[in-house]
Amino acid sequence: MAILFTGIKQLLTFAGENAPRAGAAMRETGLVKNAAVLVEDGVVAAAGPRASVHRHRLARKARVIETGGVCLPGFVDSHTHAVFAEPRLRDFSMRTAGASYQQIKAAGGGIVSSIGAVRRLPQKTLAAQLAERAQRFLECGTTTIEVKSGYGLSLESELKMLRAVREAAKLTRLELLPTLLAAHSVPPEFNGDAQKYLDYVTAEILPKAAAEKLAIFADIFCEKGYFTPEQTTAYLKAAARLGLKPKVHSEQLSNYGGTRAGAAAGALSADHADHVYAEDIAAMRDAGTIAALLPASNFYLGLAKYPPAREIISEGVPVALATDFNPGTCPCWNMQFVVAAACTHCAMTPEEALCAATVNGAWALGIGDRTGCLAPGMRADLAFFDADDYRELAYYFGASQCVMTVKNGGVAWQKAPSRRAK
Ligand code: NIG
Ligand code: FE
């Protein structure tokens, strides 16, 4: 049965070119005031001014939901590490006492400290935990997330993490797109020999993940003390030959060359981009690589430096925003906070930030042709907010304003009715 969401004060459709949005196009929200969205069979039948949507032939028999507020395409969070066993509270305490990322790693914290518990837990438990976290994402208006492995760092445990994503996808309405991130760090068994570990990943883990279709993307952490730019290009090319789409963690802690290395392998996105220079930005533009910025991690790490979004946008590289949700450097699943941080710390406009969190997030996952914007034929992935103006989503921060999330045309989460608090 068709559903008619109506009485929407402001609808941002982001309808436009069937491609990632760059430059001025990132500010084209497709704003419609007094709007409605008509949905049938999981897709958008019409989205636009209330009066014209109500005239659609399917509207007459549709179930009507009066929503009010602001409606956007559901957030597409293109970068998360949402499968993990435990929060890293020891790292957190050390950080609040002044320790840096590198000092925490040297003291036995960091990425590798997450592997023990992930290796111990059964797949079923990891899947159940992920499904519970998925609910938190839905409650904040997110309808699709990418999920990385990378806390197993062995054949068995990396595949277990990816299988847990597959299992969790059956327990939640949130769409989960898996990424193999076996090249996240060098596990202790390899005594710091990054090349030997990468050879093992390439020979053993990549082919099995590809054969079992456990991952859509392959990612690598290119940084001093992790993997070099040369290793990054070679690894991502090997992954691409097996059908996994390349992504890269690059220029997070220093300017090290990961962005150019990723672009050379045709990376769909280069993520973090905190320390990119002009040549890195040019490489992304020339390769068609999207810059996925993760400012909630900068916030959480207490960094003064944020990614240079203005430079990246003015050079014509499409920008996506994502949470980087993970137990070490960003325990935040709320894309509304990411949007707020991008506006206040990266000088992005609310229009650009919302575009980056929806349509460009979808393109950073290669699914922009079916989700991320609201036009006839697109998946009916919608988020509704208790707000009068879409800019309030970036203005009020630290709490969720989401009241309803719709995935594939079905209500995936709805807030219990309460009086408006603000
Ligand atoms: O994106 N940089 C590498 N990976 C994560 C951190 C993961 C962790 O600390 O557990 C990131 O920040
Ligand atoms: Fe990350």
Describe the protein in words.
With 422 residues, the protein is of the alpha/beta class. It has two domains: 3-73 and 371-414, Roll (Urease, subunit C, domain 1), CATH 2.30.40.10; 76-363, Metal-dependent hydrolases (TIM Barrel). 35% of the residues lie in helices and 21% in strands. The protein contains 16 helices and 16 strands. The strands form two sheets. Strands 1, 2, 3, 4, 5, 14, 15 and 16 form an eight-stranded mixed sheet that branches. An eight-stranded parallel sheet has the order 6-7-8-9-10-11-12-13. β11, α10 and β12 form a beta-alpha-beta unit. α7 packs parallel to α8. 56% of the residues are buried. The mean pLDDT is 97. Residues 79, 81, 249, 324, 326 line the site of fe (iii) ion (FE).
Per DSSP E runs of 2 or more residues, the count of β-strands stands at 16
CATH superfamily of the largest domain: Metal-dependent hydrolases
CATH class of the largest domain: Alpha Beta
> Any idea what the radius of gyration is?
21 Å
At CATH level 2, the architecture of the largest domain is: Alpha-Beta Barrel
**Count, helices:** 16
Largest sheet: 8 strands, mixed
Poorly predicted segments? none
Percent helix:
25-40%
